[in-house]
């Protein structure tokens, strides 16, 4: 027999068989409290999706959780019991930083969605993800309406008041209705400055910049893990700018001031998050060819952060990118031919120079270089230097001899050679086009792009 106390206080006697059943029920309830959830859905076109990998987004990057095959466009990710409520990144192709979907997994809902390459993401099961998506859609449209008001030079105080009130209503309703959810963290952090009374554009922008970080919880690990916080930081750096900037130099000077501001603001956050946030700013500067901003970020902030975070690879890659930046002078290359020394810096004067990094054991090189050699015969104002990344000279001598119009240098050690590291070579063939002063002006992806650039 076994005994337990009822809600009324009386003692109930259970037979052994009932005791087993009761124990089983308690165990079942306990397991249910920590139940394993799932993320499932459908991709289309089905033929374009083969595998899906789930990562938990962390302050320093991504943590692998689980993966699964996508069969006929459908998938189910059975999330481990230990998976924590957070934002998760579902990667469906490479490169991983381009082909992904971010969803909230709260351990309470089975998340389901449909994803189409043309129409994007549609949440079919998960109230929290639906609310999250709905809020950002509505608030973005309302914010766009405010900026349109300013851009059109509208002076209607009533319309302005209606726009501001609509923004406040959307923000308040979603904040109140989504308390104690992961989505609430993002919605609250997204609350932006709104004036009490009408403000002209210049005043509004100044106040918006001043209050940009008022509601951002920089120490929340879930926000730190997502793109949301780093995007907010980058938005401040590149958008919170005076409206009267007249040239690129003045623009880059203001951006550098903003970089310093955000670096100070986030200095109490984990080094891994600081590194991620500042690196994203550096990448945006690179994409927009803002060389002085890149150099300022790296020299004053990113190099120290990456080193402290144990990310020497990032440091090396950025230093290589700086050496190879469009407009910079190419690093020197030297070689010998018939015991005579040559150098890129002293090559015969030409309108353009082409550097080709290749290998005599690379099938793509053996296909592209002979074709390129033929195509370039008519370019009299061009000099070509082909640098072979090789283990030895035997095969390189045979193949390079079939390309007599090129000058040839060899870099023994292949990927570990000095030139491979200096020029950041990760695949062959790799092309660089230089101007008459031997400064980088283009980095074509193929032999066809080389010819197309030179023709135009």
Structure description:
The protein is an alpha+beta fold and 456 residues long. It contains 15 helices and 17 strands. It has helices at residues 16-33, 127-151, 157-177, 182-189, 201-210, 221-225, 227-239, 248-265, 271-287, 291-308, 312-323, 363-375, 394-400, 418-422, 447-455; strands at residues 2-5, 11-14, 38-44, 51-58, 61-69, 74-78, 86-91, 100-105, 111-116, 120-125, 334-337, 340-343, 352-358, 382-390, 407-412, 430-434, 440-442. It has a 5-stranded mixed beta sheet. A 4-stranded mixed beta sheet has the order 6-3-9-10. Strands 5-4-7-8 form a 4-stranded antiparallel beta sheet. Helix 7 packs across helix 8 (248-265). The chain is globular.
Which terms summarize this structure?
456 residues; globular; 5-stranded mixed beta sheet; 44% helix
Provide a short characterization of the protein structure.
It contains 15 helices and 17 strands.
> Major sheet: size, sense and barrel closure?
5 strands, mixed
The general outline is globular
Rg, rounded, reads 30 Å
Number of strand elements: 17
Query: How many helix segments?
Result: 15
- Unreliable spans: 1-34
- Percent range for helical residues? 40-55%
Widest beta sheet: strand line-up: 15-14-13-16-17
Helical/strand content category: alpha+beta
| Residues in β-strands, percent | 15-25%
Average residue-wise pLDDT = 91
Report how far the terminal alpha carbons are from each other. Answer: 93 Å
Topology:
Blueprint: E1 2-5, E2 11-14, H1 16-33, E3 38-44, E4 51-58, E5 61-69, E6 74-78, E7 86-91, E8 100-105, E9 111-116, E10 120-125, H2 127-151, H3 157-177, H4 182-189, H5 201-210, H6 221-225, H7 227-239, H8 248-265, H9 271-287, H10 291-308, H11 312-323, E11 334-337, E12 340-343, E13 352-358, H12 363-375, E14 382-390, H13 394-400, E15 407-412, H14 418-422, E16 430-434, E17 440-442, H15 447-455
Parallel strand pairs: 3-9, 13-14, 14-15
Antiparallel strand pairs: 1-2, 3-6, 4-5, 4-7, 7-8, 9-10, 11-12, 13-16, 16-17
